[in-house]
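Example S7 (structure tokens).
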């Protein structure tokens, strides 16, 4: 059985996924290092693959990158390691989704992958929220078109800005106040309340505003590396899928390789 290897390259982390047809068989996350060489990333990848005892035979793959200098690194990695060149999601690639924005070329490849996965796997209209270092809200209308987004600071970004701006505040762990009271009785709980509950209130407010535009039936789909912390304190998401971008990349790969989609 052949497998596909997907790369979701972000500013802080790189998510890797192994697909057998449409099934995600394995996923790993590593830190993004722009200065990393193809050989260095190959060592990390082979470390993961050794744990599978040679279970995967890769015949292709795709990548989405928010860090353009990383693209040549992973192209070279795949050519050297596997003998094929991954599909790079960008202009000219079939994505299966119409982008209705002022400048479609500005829309990141990961955003397109998320929108396609949301539409295909969960239906439209949809609000996709990526809980990463930067929080991104993506909108898919009832016709399955990507119609825009909103970008806000993530939890870590907000916390860093707060602690840099207020020298007397102690840096605290990003966690809900204990006890879970929005009115903090000490500085630690006051900071945690403002960061966690304030952030969740912002997200809930943005969801309400998006639903005013997309319709009350728009599904809220949460993804990204910080979803567990947020969703412990709020039931704002209808669907949670931390690997949504990888699933979207697999769908885009199949769109651009019809023989594989037909089982060939």
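Recovered sequence:
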């Amino acid at each position: 059985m052949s497998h596909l290897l997907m790369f979701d390259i972000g500013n802080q982390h790189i998510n890797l996924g192994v697909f057998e047809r449409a099934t995600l068989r394995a996923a790993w996350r590593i830190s993004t290092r722009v200065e990393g060489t193809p050989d260095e990333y190959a060592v990390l990848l082979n470390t993961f693959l050794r744990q599978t005892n040679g279970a995967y035979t890769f015949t292709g793959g795709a990548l989405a990158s928010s860090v353009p200098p990383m693209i040549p690194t992973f192209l070279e990695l795949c050519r050297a390691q596997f003998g094929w060149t991954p599909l790079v999601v960008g202009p000219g690639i079939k994505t299966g989704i119409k982008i209705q924005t002022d400048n479609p070329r500005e829309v990141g490849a990961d955003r397109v992958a998320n929108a396609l996965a949301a539409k295909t796997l969960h239906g439209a209209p949809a609000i996709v929220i990526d809980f990463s270092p930067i929080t991104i809200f993506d909108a898919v209308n009832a016709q399955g078109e990507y119609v825009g987004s909103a970008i806000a600071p993530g939890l870590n970004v907000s916390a860093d800005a707060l602690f840099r701006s207020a020298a007397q505040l102690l840096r605290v762990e990003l966690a809900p106040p204990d006890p879970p009271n929005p009115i903090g009785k000490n500085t630690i709980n006051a900071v945690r309340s403002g960061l966690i509950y304030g952030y969740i209130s912002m997200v809930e407010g943005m969801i309400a505003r998006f639903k005013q535009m997309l319709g009350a039936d728009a599904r809220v789909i949460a993804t990204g590396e910080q979803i567990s912390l947020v969703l412990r304190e709020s039931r704002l998401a209808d669907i949670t899928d931390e690997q949504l971008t990888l699933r979207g990349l697999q769908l885009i790969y199949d769109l651009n390789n019809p023989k594989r989609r037909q089982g060939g």
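Notes on this example. The longest helix spans residues 187-214.
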